[in-house]
Amino acid sequence: MRRLYRKKALSLVKELDAFPKVPESYVETTASGGTVSLIAFTAMALLAFFEFFVYRDTWMKYEYEVDKDFSSKLRINIDITVAMKCQHVGADILDLAETMITSNGIQYEPVSRLLSFLLHYRLWTLLLIQNRLREEHSLQEVLYKSVLKGAPTALPPREVATSEPLGACRIHGHVYVNKVAGNFHITVGKPIHHPRGHAHIAAFVSHDTYNFSHRIDHFSFGEEIPGIINPLDGTEKVTTNNNHMFQYFITVVPTKLHTSKVSADTHQFSVTERERVINHAAGSHGVSGIFMKYDTSSLMVTVSEQHMPLWQFLVRLCGIIGGIFSTTGMIHGFVGFCFDIVCCRFKLGTYKPKEVRHCTSFNLTPNPNPS
């Protein structure tokens, strides 16, 4: 009985076979079929190879939500060189709540106004990347994915002493501020802190020494991500007027970055520049200096690196192989059908009529009445 059941089950499985086998004696191979098969296998191999690179590639996914973290501090990273001596300039931050932020984290370093060739080349490269970022926003995804730990983000310290006079001041460091609108500014005189206002001691600085030509080597918000180019990195402004005001209006967007190389809480920002000459007689009032007015956005962006799942890659690979196999088979059959019609119409090839040979028959019956 068990053998009978096994035979019935085996016959049932054979009936469900969707891939019937054809004996090799019934299979006919042709040169055209072999050519098409080679083309099909080559196309399958190439497309499967390129599909593997698509599988390895990643893309950035952007998600937006309301920023509910209003109690944390915002970090500002600064590296700016001003064409004035360090004892003549001062930098501090005043936020919207009239809170004076102490500049304990900011350092003043006397430097030369001249730039080395290497630094000029780096600034030129930064400007090229910034221009491409403005024209082609997809480049930002490349920067997110290719970020490397240890990449330079700011001007390196001077290693070789220069004989040029140290007539400029490098202001660098980081400070923590409240997550409200504020104003980071660099102007004449050191800042003083008192409960009734905000002031800089500029009475002892000669007006002829005012020169707010500057270079922004690095300016960012939040955790520093090595290798990421910020909108103001590499900016250089030169003026010949002593009474010049440079203004940068910045909108900061909190950003969480999650990639295969780094995971950090940082901030993106957009900036609008404006500059003018202070002339009280012409109605252009203000204070000479560099003013960066920032404001935080209420939205938070989460940028995560996405990867194609393995099952989707296998499905696409099966589609490539099966699709090419079926398509080339149909094309080969259609071309053969058209070829048969043409040959039949013009009687070519196998349809060419065969020549019929007529043979003369001789009667070989002997004559019964020989002479």
From TrEMBL:
<dbReference type="InterPro" id="IPR012936">
    <property type="entry name" value="Erv_C"/>
</dbReference>
<dbReference type="Pfam" id="PF13850">
    <property type="entry name" value="ERGIC_N"/>
</dbReference>
<dbReference type="GO" id="GO:0033116">
    <property type="term" value="C:endoplasmic reticulum-Golgi intermediate compartment membrane"/>
</dbReference>
<dbReference type="Pfam" id="PF07970">
    <property type="entry name" value="COPIIcoated_ERV"/>
</dbReference>
<dbReference type="InterPro" id="IPR045888">
    <property type="entry name" value="Erv"/>
</dbReference>
<feature type="domain" description="Endoplasmic reticulum vesicle transporter C-terminal">
    <location>
        <begin position="167"/>
        <end position="331"/>
    </location>
</feature>
<keyword id="KW-0472">Membrane</keyword>
<feature type="domain" description="Endoplasmic reticulum vesicle transporter N-terminal">
    <location>
        <begin position="13"/>
        <end position="99"/>
    </location>
</feature>
<dbReference type="GO" id="GO:0006890">
    <property type="term" value="P:retrograde vesicle-mediated transport, Golgi to endoplasmic reticulum"/>
</dbReference>
<dbReference type="GO" id="GO:0005789">
    <property type="term" value="C:endoplasmic reticulum membrane"/>
</dbReference>
<keyword id="KW-1133">Transmembrane helix</keyword>
<comment type="similarity">
    <text>Belongs to the ERGIC family.</text>
</comment>
<feature type="transmembrane region" description="Helical">
    <location>
        <begin position="35"/>
        <end position="55"/>
    </location>
</feature>
<dbReference type="GO" id="GO:0006888">
    <property type="term" value="P:endoplasmic reticulum to Golgi vesicle-mediated transport"/>
</dbReference>
<dbReference type="InterPro" id="IPR039542">
    <property type="entry name" value="Erv_N"/>
</dbReference>
<keyword id="KW-0812">Transmembrane</keyword>
<keyword id="KW-0333">Golgi apparatus</keyword>
<feature type="transmembrane region" description="Helical">
    <location>
        <begin position="313"/>
        <end position="335"/>
    </location>
</feature>
<dbReference type="GO" id="GO:0000139">
    <property type="term" value="C:Golgi membrane"/>
</dbReference>
<keyword id="KW-0931">ER-Golgi transport</keyword>
<comment type="function">
    <text>Plays a role in transport between endoplasmic reticulum and Golgi.</text>
</comment>
<keyword id="KW-0256">Endoplasmic reticulum</keyword>
<keyword id="KW-0813">Transport</keyword>
<protein>
    <recommendedName>
        <fullName>Endoplasmic reticulum-Golgi intermediate compartment protein</fullName>
    </recommendedName>
</protein>
<dbReference type="GO" id="GO:0030134">
    <property type="term" value="C:COPII-coated ER to Golgi transport vesicle"/>
</dbReference>
